């Protein structure tokens, strides 16, 4: 029997010993950078000539690793391997499947700083963000393992005289898992193991800018005893193999996390029943956000500014949960804005091996997109902090606050996915909530208030999947804050929540007449 789930503690980097250990891990990983990683298809390691080169976004010339690139033929081979393996894997005792996850969690825990160091190099994460990403990956393994054990005998239903009834869950088949780069470890690992622990086999296509940490995770799974063919690792371009695996008639479900644009495409394509397909594909799609922190007039204004700045600029705003809109009741607008500007000016931006507050953004495309929104910000409001970027060595953008933006402006409506937050004024709390709700998304949001009635109103009227009170709007913890959004933020599949694994299962009723 395993001990109860508890989330993995974060490393306290104010402790000198922890800093030294992390610096040692950074050194060790730096010496390993530039290796080649294979595809993994049915347990075979496949090296291709065509590679995806993963670069450090903080230092463009630094190659983190070269990863073999899957073609459609590889994707087809992976599908066949997954189909064959499914026939065996689905019959495994769920507890034995869960044990592999616990073993993998233990391996990663022992090498925690090493994985976080990879995230510093490959995703440009500051130390604390890398550490949190690794901790969340461990949490997903520990939590989903336990959830599977809880579900293994199904859920009791009523029986009656002369009739014995059972209600249980069986796996679906081959799951296609497509993950984003911004939680290159946690989301990639969590979505993959959720599919596998429930008895499905997996085709994993990680994001093209962060395939190395996924390759390292494959090594851990193998060491933990994951049988060959259960998880098939096929990095490749979305356009080359993405559509192919989504459309494949043998794909039973798709677990996608990424942008709204790609999510909509996958949702639409998955709806079509192709030749040889005899099920409706299940789609879990977790997409973008346009998340708001609302500040009431009766609120702790220091807490408000701290929450806005941390949620807007943590990992350079590259979180689906990031605060990209601060909606502030007019009585306290100027004060919160001033406090936020002051805190923002204290943030350091630079190469994340140096433990800066903020690192680079993901790549040139992200840099260009974010800078173009800053230009739009100059038209739609007033730049009061930041506003500049430099992509000569890495993709660095200063944390940017745009003040006095109208509620329907582009800056208030479109996902920027970078270190840019728009401030908007509301005449009172009701109007602030209306503005908070006026986007097509509905992922996270927070209210900062001391007014109990307003807290209660926000609980019912703030239409987001994760609503926080008197704190920032990022940083959901597995098992504590099940995570997923409404409307165009996705299918509200609550990752790290008690009903998440059922998305990877189908329920079966058995009724026996006695
Ligand atoms: N809601 C959530 O839980 C959540 C979590 C993390 C990120 N996100 C969102 O993800 C986005 C950032 O991530 P991103 O830039 O990696 O997103 P993205 O949509 O560009 O890419 C996500 C994944 O989809 C793949 N892909 C691209 N085209 C494809 C296609 N035609 N078919 C199949 N797969 C394809 C990519 O290669 C990548 O692996 C943001 O919008 C962010 O809000 C959401
Ligand atoms: N779960 C993370 C966000 C994941 C998306 O980028 C958070 O709660 O901040």
Automatic annotation (TrEMBL):
List this protein's GO terms for biological process. glutamate biosynthetic process; L-proline catabolic process to L-glutamate
- What's a GO cellular component annotated to this UniProt protein? cytoplasmic side of plasma membrane
Residues annotated as domain Aldehyde dehydrogenase: 50-510
Q: Tell me, what is one Gene Ontology molecular-function annotation carried by this entry?
A: proline dehydrogenase activity
- EC number(s) from the headed UniProt entry: 1.2.1.88
Active site residues of this protein: 286, 320
What keyword terms does UniProt attach to this protein? NAD, Oxidoreductase
| Pfam families xrefs | Aldedh
The pathway it acts in is: Amino-acid degradation; L-proline degradation into L-glutamate; L-glutamate from L-proline: step 2/2
**Family annotation (InterPro entries):** Ald_DH/histidinol_DH, Ald_DH_C, Ald_DH_CS_CYS, Ald_DH_CS_GLU, Ald_DH_N, Aldehyde_DH_dom, Proline_metab_enzyme, RocA
Establish whether keyword Nucleotidyltransferase is in the entry. Answer: no
Reaction equations catalysed = L-glutamate 5-semialdehyde + NAD(+) + H2O = L-glutamate + NADH + 2 H(+)
UniProt record similarity statement: Belongs to the aldehyde dehydrogenase family. RocA subfamily.
Query: What PANTHER family does this protein map onto?
Result: DELTA-1-PYRROLINE-5-CARBOXYLATE DEHYDROGENASE 1, ISOFORM A-RELATED, DELTA-1-PYRROLINE-5-CARBOXYLATE DEHYDROGENASE 2, ISOFORM A-RELATED
Name under which the protein is recorded: 1-pyrroline-5-carboxylate dehydrogenase
Q: Which organism is it from?
A: Alkalihalophilus marmarensis DSM 21297
Recall the taxonomic lineage recorded for the source organism.
Answer: Bacteria, Bacillati, Bacillota, Bacilli, Bacillales
């Amino acid at each position: 029997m395993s001990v109860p789930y508890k989330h993995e503690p974060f490393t306290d980097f104010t402790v000198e010993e922890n800093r030294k250990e992390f610096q040692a891990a950074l050194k060790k990983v730096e010496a390993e950078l530039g290796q080649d990683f294979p595809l993994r298809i049915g347990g075979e390691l496949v090296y291709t000539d065509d590679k995806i080169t993963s670069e450090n976004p903080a230092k463009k010339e630094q190659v983190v690793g070269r990863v073999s690139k899957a073609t459609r033929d590889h994707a087809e081979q992976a599908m066949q391997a997954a189909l064959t393996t499914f026939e065996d894997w689905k019959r495994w005792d769920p507890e034995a499947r869960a044990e592999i996850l616990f073993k993998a969690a233990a391996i990663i825990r022992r090498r925690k700083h090493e994985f976080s160091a990879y995230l510093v190099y490959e995703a440009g994460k500051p130390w604390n963000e890398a550490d949190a990403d690794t901790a969340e990956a461990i949490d997903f393994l520990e939590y989903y393992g336990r959830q599977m054990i809880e579900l293994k005998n199904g859920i009791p239903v009523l029986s009656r005289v002369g009739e014995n009834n059972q209600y249980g869950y069986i796996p679906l088949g081959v799951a296609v898992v497509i993950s984003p780069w911004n939680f290159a470890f946690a989301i990639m690992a969590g979505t993959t193991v959720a599919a596998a622990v429930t008895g499905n086999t997996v085709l994993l296509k990680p994001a093209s800018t962060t395939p190395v940490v996924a390759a390292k995770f494959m090594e851990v799974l193998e060491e933990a005893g994951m049988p060959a063919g259960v998880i098939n690792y096929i990095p490749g371009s979305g356009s080359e193999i993405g559509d192919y695996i989504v459309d494949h008639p043998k794909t039973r479900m798709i677990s996608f996390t990424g942008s709204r644009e790609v999510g909509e495409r996958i949702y639409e394509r998955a709806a079509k029943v192709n030749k040889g397909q005899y099920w409706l594909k299940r789609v879990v799609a977790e997409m973008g956000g346009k998340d708001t922190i609302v500040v009431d007039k009766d609120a702790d204004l220091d807490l408000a500014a701290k929450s806005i700045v941390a949620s807007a600029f943590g990992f350079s705003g590259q979180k689906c949960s990031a605060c990209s809109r601060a909606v502030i009741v007019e009585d306290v607008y100027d004060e919160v804005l001033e406090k936020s500007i002051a805190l923002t000016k204290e943030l350091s931006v630079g190469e994340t091996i140096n433990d800066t507050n903020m690192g680079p953004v993901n790549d040139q495309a992200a840099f260009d997109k974010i800078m173009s929104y800053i230009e739009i910000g100059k038209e739609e409001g007033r730049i009061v902090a930041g506003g500049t970027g430099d992509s000569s060595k890495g993709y660095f953008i200063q944390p940017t606050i745009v003040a006095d933006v109208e509620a329907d402006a582009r800056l208030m409506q479109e996902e920027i996915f970078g270190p840019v937050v728009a401030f908007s004024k509301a005449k009172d709390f009701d109007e602030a909530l209306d503005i908070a709700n006026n986007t097509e998304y509905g992922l996270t949001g927070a209210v900062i208030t001391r007014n109990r009635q307003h807290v209660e109103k926000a609980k019912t009227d703030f239409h987001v999947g994760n609503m926080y009170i008197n704190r920032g709007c990022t940083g959901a913890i597995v098992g504590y804050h099940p995570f997923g959004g409404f409307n165009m933020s996705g299918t509200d599949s609550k990752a790290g929540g008690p009903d998440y694994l059922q998305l990877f299962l189908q329920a079966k009723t058995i009724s026996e007449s006695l």
